Amino acid sequence: KTMSLRREHEAQMKIMVHEHQDELRKVQEELELQKSK
Known about the structure:
Blueprint: H1 2-36
Keywords: Coiled coil
Coiled coil: 10-37
């Protein structure tokens, strides 16, 4: 039972990391837009 809990936790961590990378990409794109002005 603990194994499935750990696997579930890892899945949630991967989702969080993926969402975080998405946010970072948006921020970087906005910075690039401001630079090009």
